[in-house]
Amino acid sequence: MFCMNEINDNLLIHLHVPKTGGTTMRSLVRRQFDRSKIKEIYPHFGMADSINQIHDMTPEEKTAINCLQGHFVYGVHVYFQRPVQYIAMLRDPVEHIISTYYYIKGDPNHPYYQELTTNNITLDNFHEWRSQYFTELNNSQTRYMAGVASRELLPEDLEAAKKNVREQFALVGLTERFDESVFLLNKTLAWNIVTYRSQNVTAVRPKQKELPHDLIQRIRENNKLDVELYNFTVELFNQKIEELEAETKLELAKFIQNRKSFDFIYDFGKSMLSEQFIDWIVNVGSCRVYLFGAGEAGKLAHNVINEMNNRLGLNIEIQAFIDNDPQKWGQYLLGTQVKGVDSIDHSIADHIVIASMYADDIEKQLLEVKIPENKIIFSLIR
Q1: Maximum Cα interatomic distance, the chain, rounded to a whole number of Å
Q2: To which H or E segment does residue 105 belong?
């Protein structure tokens, strides 16, 4: 179904198994496509709803998108008359069950919260719970990968799931090895992700080592299909890593080291900076820029660029701040002069970084003065 490093127009299907790091992966997928080209299916109640939503898409909608992602089982490609590539993440089954239980328990707005509390479901008897909206939570990763939406799982479903992992997915990553998974996706799908932050992490939950040994064993026993599928997927994942060329393995080590070093960026930017902007800084490496916005967002972008220059040996030169407020013109902010739009000189700057909450208006303004769209970069989350 796929070829390593193949660049094509296939429909990318991100099969998002809940509580496997898929929300973080979803954010990475969104960075690769125009939002109008992505269809996301996240039903509140039951797998049937997700299938219905896909089935009800018009032929025009199905051909217009480049990516489908959400909570649905394997097999939705049959609704699309075009080549596809699947990706997914799997997680250690014990961690998966613990995280799922405490995620539901900790969110009163979760659609299953009321059922969980009304029926006095604990982690001890979680495996016995059968919601009105789905068959069971046990072995749910096998269910997703085998394409079993509602019926009880059968032993042969495990073999179907293994076959799909081996033959039908461009990559099945591992939550516990997320950096390596992202690196392999970069190589497989020709992406350029360099940093990310974990999202939708279950905040309050015990660590596995803090739970009784017999409880851990019961979770494993009740999820033995998932345990076997996960171990099988780990073997395939290890094989992919081992088969990398020596030079690529060095690149992987550098990727992991750099990714961890980018945590300081979020100390600077909190939740304001877009990850696309950080990726752009690293990938461009060396260029000359104007910063449009001589306010707090502009200062943030200025500080992050300088810090990344210093830490990563980049060479991004800030030529000036640009601002629409005449009272700021001629002043210096962080040692850099503030100028008006008329001062933009194409010969001394390669890009204009918009660092302002009024990004859409500024973009229109720049396009009106004939600034090429590919020279405009956004620093903030939009």
Answers
A1: 74
A2: helix 93-105
DSSP readout, 213-260? HHHHHHHHHHTHHHHHHHHHHHHHHHHHHHTS-HHHHHHHHHHHHHHH
Residue 83, token pair as written in the block: 């080549």
**Tokens representing residue 359 in the block:** 């990004």
Residue with tokens 């393995």: 249
DSSP string, 259-314: HHHTHHHHHHHTT-B-HHHHHHHHHH-EEEEEEE--SHHHHHHHHHHHHHHHHH--
Quick one: pLDDT at residue 84?
Answer: 96
Q: Residue 192, exposed/middle/buried by CB under 10 A (0-12, 13-18, 19+)?
A: exposed
One fold for 11-258 and 268-378: yes
Spans of the chain below 50 pLDDT: 1-7
What the block records as the tokens of 177 is: 């090895």
Distances (CA, A) of 231 to 25, 137, 235: 21, 19, 6
- Give the start-to-end residue ranges of the domains of the chain: 11-258, 268-378
Return the CATH number of the domain spanning residue range 11-258. 3.40.50.300
381 φ/ψ angles, rounded to the nearest 5 degrees: -65, 135
Element (H, E) at 143: helix 140-146
* Dihedral Cα 184, 189, 193, 197, nearest 10 deg: -70
Measured CA to CA, the distance from residue 286 to residue 351 in angstroms comes to 11
| Under 8 Å between Cβ of 327 and 340 | no
**Locate tokens 């018009």: which residue?**
58
| CATH code of the domain occupying 268-378 | 3.40.50.720
Q: Are 31 and 275 in contact (CB under 8 A)?
A: yes
Exposure of 258 in the CB half-sphere (CA atoms within 13 A): 21
Place of tokens 């900076």: 273
User: What whole-number distance in Å separates Cα of residue 81 and Cα of residue 163?
Assistant: 22
Strands (DSSP E) found in the chain: 11-15, 38-41, 67-70, 84-90, 169-174, 286-292, 315-322, 332-333, 336-339, 351-354, 376-378
User: Phi and psi (nearest 5°) for 199?
Assistant: -125, 155
Angstrom distance (rounded) from CA 244 to CA 238: 10
